[in-house]
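This entry is passed on directly below:
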Amino acid sequence: MNTRQIVKSILLAASLAATPFAQASDLAEVYQKALQNDPQIREAEALRLAALEAKPQALATLLPQVTGDASYNTTEPSGSSSFVSLVPDASTPDPDDLKPVIGSRDSSADSETTRWALELRQSVFRWQNWVALKRADSQVAQAEADYAAAQQELILRTAQRYFDTLAARDTLDAALAAQEAISRQLEQSEKRFEVGLIAITDVQEARAARDTANAAVILGKRTLATQQERLRELTGETFAELKGPGDDLPLLGPNPANEDDWVKLAMEQNLSLISSRLAADISRSNISSENGGHLPTLDLVLTRSSYDTKATRDLDGIPGVSGNADSDGDDKQVLLQFTVPIYSG
């Protein structure tokens, strides 16, 4: 029997055992309010929902990763350069005589380059990714166990405070009844004292008993208010009346009646133990993931890139150098990338 079935069985039995009372709330109704408003169970639910995301996050590492980038670049460089040339010396008749001449040349260029690239990377083998997927299953199972344990703990707290409130109400009713009876006894004692049947000490004793009864009523009201406030802390609501257990409430013995059987059952189904075992599995997975850092990885990489450059150059009108210098190109690559870690401090 799982936790939800246990919860339904307990609440159903409590509802059937409750005595009918107009506008009174039973244990099942109070528990439903606590399930919606108790801060501890809401925290457990939030932690459970957060832990459930571990599985899709682990699966995401096994899916292809697609990245893209694009760029646009424009440049307008300009400048001048000096150079030395050897030319025939006109002052001498020998044509082989040369003299150096210093000259300069201006240059300028304009270019615009547009580039884009896409990369698809599919992990073929990464030990850490497969360990993370296995670890995610344990994390989800642990979150479910912790939430079920929080539900069980909420049932205990709700039932404890519910019946504490009923007990405080019964104690107050008994104190009120005792106060009324002692007050009548005091009236009788005063009348008997007036006719001389008893001594004044008997009257004083009756008055002391009444004061004690009054103090018990005050204490009972304070206790009831405290228990109602503790119940409101769980549910967020104040209940005017609560149903008490009926006269036909069955009191069944433990089944099985063997103590060892209960110990064995607790070892197998106790949610805190289950959560601890799963935590140990998660820790072992973390160790395995860290050890996987020594293993090689294998990735399939597909890339596609393209560029287009429009450029003009001017170098003092030198033919073959000045003019347009446009260029473009496309590149496609399919890689099977094998990486071996050799050393990492």
User: Anything to note?
Assistant: Strands lie at 65-75, 78-88, 98-125, 297-314, 323-324, 327-339. The chain is about 55% helix and 25% strand.
